[in-house]
């Protein structure tokens, strides 16, 4: 069965680039019909979808975050990586990776100067 595990720095400073990794086990990230997502939940807010990467190579972005977001894959490690540039305190929250059926436990990110 598929399992997902997020990892990241925990603390980042404003204007820096946040890098988060999702380790996938139980299935190759290149498997047909696979879809990999990043979602976050900021304090006092609901879940916010960030980006979705399809096995076909198509990537979809939340329009409000698109200019600061990129997603990549490392097939040798079976990981997919989120980069969020120019972070601000409002980017603080718990970040999750998911294929919509399975979710990681989330990783806390705090943007503090």
List strands and helices in order, with pairings.
Elements: E1 3-7, E2 11-12, E3 18-25, E4 35-41, E5 47-54, E6 59-61, E7 69-74, E8 79-84, E9 93-98, E10 107-111
Parallel strand pairs: 2-10
Antiparallel strand pairs: 1-3, 3-8, 4-5, 4-9, 5-6, 7-8, 9-10
What does this structure look like?
With 113 residues, the chain is mainly beta. It has strands at 3-7, 11-12, 18-25, 35-41, 47-54, 59-61, 69-74, 79-84, 93-98, 107-111. β5 and β6 form a beta hairpin. The chain is globular and about 40 Å long.
* Sheet with the most strands, sense and barrel status: 6 strands, mixed
Helix content: under 10%
Query: What is the number of E strands?
Result: 10
Number of helices: 0
Q: How much is the radius of gyration in Å? A: 13 Å
Order of helices and strands: EEEEEEEEEE
Low-confidence stretches: none
Specify the oligomeric state: single chain
What order do the strands of the largest sheet run in, or round the barrel if closed?
2-10-9-4-5-6
Query: Between the first and last Cα atoms, what is the distance in angstroms?
Result: 40 Å
What percent strand? over 45%
* Class by SSE composition: mainly beta
Mean pLDDT reading? 95
Q: Tell me, what's the shape?
A: globular
Provide a short characterization of the protein structure.
This protein has 113 residues and is mainly β.
Structural key phrases:
113 residues, mainly beta, six-stranded mixed sheet, four-stranded antiparallel sheet, 50% strand
